[in-house]
Amino acid sequence: MTKKSETKESPETQGVPLPLRMQGFFSKLRGCLDGLVNAYCNLTKIEAVEAKELVSKKAAALMERGQYGKAIDHYNKLIGMGKEEADIYYNLGICCERESMDEEAQEAYKKASEMDKSHTDAVYRLGLLAIKNDDSEAAVKYLGSLARKDKTSFDIMYNLGVAYDKLKNYEKAVESFTKAIEIESNYSKVHKRLGYTYEAMGKREEAMECFKKAMELEEI
Predict the structure, then answer these.
(1) Is residue 195 part of a domain?
(2) Is-above-0.85 flag for pTM?
(3) Which end of the chain is more exposed for a tag (fewer CB within 10 A), N or C?
(4) What CATH number should be reported for the domain holding residue 163?
(5) Is 27 left (phi over 0), alpha (psi -120 to 50) or beta?
(6) How confident is the model at residue 30 (pLDDT cuts 50, 70, 90)?
(7) Would you list the DSSP string of 38-88?
(8) Half-sphere CA count of 207, side-chain side, radius 13 A
């Protein structure tokens, strides 16, 4: 039986370089492929950015319409897409608060304040949540930190007074309510709260003056 002859490449034919024309063709092809890959990557990035923007706008629209549950889903989706910003967590906190999800709201506000140390709105909401949940010490911590930076905010001073009053730290409560009145004297509720604080301190005359002022403002 005859053996089939095996053809072997001679040393001269091994590793023969491609003709220049073929080299040019493959070089261009490689360049085209690289270009397509880069274009695809850029397109993917653009699509991801646009998708985040669409979800963000949808979340804001739902929040504005009062559809807080759906807005929560969209804000969480946005965070899952990698768009983590202080304002997103703040808006998420507002929506959670409207849905009586206080723990989730608190976490969102904390995240917002951690991401942006100057986000005073998030700290203020934490203070109000603390008052609502009878954690007056936390409320004093949050609102007190804001009061030290801004002594011209009626809302901060008034709610700080409420927190101190709940702690039965009446002197501090009077101080905060008085500062609130200096900022905005036509708000009857603060005069009434100050009156209750004076009454708890046994200062009946001061309390009566505050109640009288509150009644006058309510009649206007």
Answers:
(1) yes
(2) no
(3) N
(4) 1.25.40.10
(5) alpha
(6) low
(7) HHHHHHHHHHHHHHHHHHHHHHHHHHHTT-HHHHHHHHHHHHHTT---HHH
(8) 10
214 and 160 belong to one structural domain: yes
Residue type, 80: G
CA–CA gap between residue 13 and residue 97 (Å, rounded):
79
d(CA 121, CA 152): 15
pLDDT, tens digit (0-9, with 9 covering 90-100), for 37-88:
455 445 455 467 788 888 888 999 999 999 999 999 999 999 998 888 999 9
One-letter amino acid of 54: L
Q: Are residues 216 and 163 part of one domain?
A: yes
Read off the pLDDT band of 95 (50, 70, 90).
very high
| Residue 216 is assigned to a structural domain of this protein | yes
Say which residues have a Cβ less than 8 Å from residue 83's Cβ, sequence separation at least 6: 52, 55, 56
Range from 4-8, 101-105, 137-141 carrying the lowest mean pLDDT: 4-8
DSSP secondary-structure letter at 29?
H
User: Are 163 and 143 in contact, with CB atoms under 8 Å apart?
Assistant: yes
Q: Which domain holds residue 81?
A: 40-118
